[in-house]
Known about the structure:
The N and C termini lie far apart (64 Å). Helix 3 (91-112) crosses helix 4 (118-131) and helix 7 crosses helix 8. The protein has one domain (39-260): 4-Layer Sandwich (Glutamine Phosphoribosylpyrophosphate, subunit 1, domain 1). It has helices at residues 14-20, 33-38, 91-112, 118-131, 133-136, 180-190, 197-214, 244-260; strands spanning 41-42, 45-50, 53-58, 62-64, 67-70, 76-80, 83-90, 142-150, 155-161, 167-170, 173-176, 230-235, 238-241. The strands form 2 sheets. Strands 1, 4, 5, 6, 7, 8, 9 and 10 form an 8-stranded antiparallel beta sheet that branches. A 5-stranded antiparallel beta sheet has the order 11-2-3-12-13, covered by helices on one side. It is an alpha+beta fold. 38% of the residues lie in helices and 26% in strands.
Amino acid sequence: MPRFTAGDDPGASFPELLRKVGLDAFPRGGLSTSDLAALPHATTCLALTYDGGVVMAGDRRATAGMSISHRTMDKVVQADELSGVAIAGTAGPAMEMIKLFQLQLEYYEKVEGQSLSLEGKANQLSMMVRSNLPAAMQGFVVVPIFAGFDPLIGRGRLWDYDPTGGRYEEHDFVATGSGSMLAGTVLRVGWRQNLSRDAAIDLASRALWEASDADAATGGPDVLRGIYPIVASIDATGWNRVADDSLVKTYETIMGEVRKR
């Protein structure tokens, strides 16, 4: 185990601990434009608040140029008991950032003996996105969404980021990725204060449907293979992923309405 002097102690920061022992959490490296196009990219994710919490959702498709590289990618994952993170951008660095973020939250709790506040977690993720800036300048862009339930104020909160690490709290909804404009429009039209959990899940599902209908990089429900978006709610009881059986019924309703149109 590494040992540190009092003035060299990395404290409760897991990325700083990695740097102290000579490991780079966000390695630099250059690729050509054609190489970057061949890397898998995650696409559309979104989050919205409802009365008592937040709903996060993301499609499952990863693309490499004009090809589908993966049909069942998990872009929305649980960060800890009361929060989750969703990613869009270059898939490899994004997944590594999520793993590092999960470790950071657990490491902080073990070192300090208490959990970070929800806003503190959002700040930690902002620092990780900022650390990835040199790689982002070379094309490895990662743009996450962070959301969770804040027990200090008793409601859900959500944040989006830019590639420089800028952190912006939104009070209603947010979408990121190639289909974000389409999904964001649906959320803007349908979001209301004090939505119920079921209404928020339905709105998130409709937003991803419309994004997949017009954006080739966003995957819609794959009925043939039984692949549906990841949708989860976070409230005072914690992280609750919506079962695929429930999403089947939601998307059957949506498809029925589309056929009538």
